[in-house]
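Weekly puzzle thread! Below is a chain. First person to post its structure in token form gets bragging rights.
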Amino acid sequence: MDKVVASAAHAVADIPDGATLSVGGFGLCGIPSALIRALLEAGTKDLEVVSNNAGVDGWGLGLLLGAGRLRRVVASYVGENKEFARQYLSGELEVELTPQGTLAERLRAGGSGIPAFFTATGVGTQVAEGGLPWKYDADGGIEIASPPKQTQVFETADGPRQFVLEQAIVADFGLVRAWRGDRHGNLVFRDSARNFNPLAAMAGRVTIAEVEELVEPGQIDPNHVHLPGAFVHRVVELSPEDAADKRIEKRTVRETGGQ
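Winning reply:
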């Protein structure tokens, strides 16, 4: 089945207002920037985004955030985005902060048909006990707080230990970026750009992949496929300009000396 669509705009055209999106990337590495821009141009709003972070001001998911298109964010780290902090603290944005490994497993579980799982991460903290501020009101009070989660003691090799139950995540749409993909949706990610992309793809009921290089079926060695096409429903081939447009989140330089 040929899953290639004509453009990013065509690929996201049926994403409705209020949809939940699982979005790949880590910082600005491996983010589906073309699909994000297409959503911005489409005017889609009231979105709930599940992603490791929310981009930076003016790029990645930060574009949707700055335009006021995000209603809720489930993420692990959001420290690079001043507009994110402003919206959250002013009560404009609902935020569910989740430990990074837990977020990864919640996405993987959702894509694997596992409704929930127990983990030791967060036991004895507000992650398990509840009370984390998900949304503030206009006066700085807590409008929505995280609920307490079920805990249970299991026998381990080190004796009895308490674990907390975490719910899997299934998104309406998954947006990811791959280095190489074929027309059947088989994807290969390059180096650290692999990050959350396979997990975000698995968690989407409909997953859209933008690829830097599109090849024909059979040109990818099956042993090199990182994500099978069964998890991918649409493929967008990036232009050379879009494929090369990769921003650096932080640049640190130093003088090399007097030579």
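Puzzle host: Confirmed. Bonus trivia for everyone else. The chain has a mean pLDDT of 95.
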